[in-house]
Amino acid sequence: MHFKCFSNIADIPSSLWNALFNSDNPFVQHSYLLALEQSGCVSEKTGWQPRHIMLMDGEKPVAVMPLYAKNHSYGEFVFDWGWADAYTRHGLDYYPKLVTAIPFSPIAGPRVGVSPDVEPGEVFAVLLSAIHQLAEMQKYSSWHLLFPGLRLQRALVDMKDEGAFLHREAVQFHWFNRGYHSFDDFMATLRSSRRKNLKRERRHVEEQGVTVERKTAMDITDEEWDGFYYCYMDTYRKRSGHDGYLNREFFECLRETMANRLMLVVARRNDEVVASSLFLFDSKRLYGRYWGALEDISCLHFEACFYQGIEFCIENSLQEFDPGTQGEHKLMRGFEPVRSASYHWIADSRFREAIAEYLAHERRGTDAYQQGAEIFLPYRKDTS
């Protein structure tokens, strides 16, 4: 086997990419990654230089993997700024580095698309060899595999190359559909105090004169789409001083090529859009991604980003709702702490050993954090 690198995903046929992944996860679809590149959100200029790998068996493509050369650590949600600082203090360069991830999206899922005609373990071993070759040729300090799905995680555990990867874990908060037929079914599993608080929050949104509705696919109007983007951009400006990682062209590409994967929550007051949140979904999961509000309206974030998503999952028999990273406030609203994973190959053995020691200490803190978080879950003991 040998490999090829591509600086544009457009140079890889979408039918080939999607067939090798064989997944309906929206974030590994060729159209999603293409939208990032065509819009300029992912480019050498923004510090995400595509280096996508295709593995070949003779002339036959047998695997593909998204890969980016990075000269910073923004938009990854697995924080290694301290590692970069340590390199700098020792007079070494941490950047550029290689990253296999979905840019700006801390979503677990497939990271390698593999043909059913080949052995996955062999593919992963060859890919690792390719990473080593690229690192040596281009002086990359490291490779970081962020939020891989369980299949790839199991394959990495089975691989015998072992100083190869450092394993890192963090905690996210996901909601799980346990066969609910309605939102009331879900609320019936909560303790009385939490159930009352949830009802109060939803009622408070209505009392402020705000109406909320969900839209999918072609039901989303141009006015609602414009309203969403203005809300998203305005919120980023207030919080971060810039318009956000993702621009208008990216969202337009999504609407044009992935409309059947989009769900939009629109909040209005006096017939004007005042807040909006955009979700993606597949056959099993809902992913809460992009939120913005033009006004600070009490409890509206909970309604638009959490409760509407839960209702959508129940109505469409989706099994899981990933609302995005961080946020202990999700616990009291029924989201449970779950582990997320990343794997890191560090070329310099001295730093690999130091980082491994740091991660062992960090893992103990992560264990304690998850155990502590579970105390605040709102479920009745007989339903948890």
Summarize the structure in words:
The protein is α+β, with helices and mostly antiparallel strands and 384 residues long. The chain has two domains: 2-170 and 338-374, Aminopeptidase; 178-318, Gcn5-related N-acetyltransferase (GNAT) (Aminopeptidase, 3-Layer(aba) Sandwich), CATH 3.40.630.30. It has helices at residues 14-21, 30-38, 81-89, 120-138, 150-158, 183-187, 192-207, 222-240, 248-257, 300-315, 349-374, and strands at residues 2-6, 48-50, 52-57, 60-65, 68-70, 97-100, 113-114, 142-146, 166-176, 210-216, 262-269, 272-281, 285-293, 320-322, 336-346. An eleven-stranded mixed sheet has the order 2-5-6-8-15-9-14-13-12-11-10. It has a four-stranded antiparallel sheet with strand order 1-3-4-7, with helices on both faces. Helix 2 (30-38) packs antiparallel against helix 9 (248-257). The chain is globular and about 60 Å long. The protein starts with a strand and ends in a 10-residue tail after the last helix. The model has no long low-confidence stretch (mean pLDDT 94).
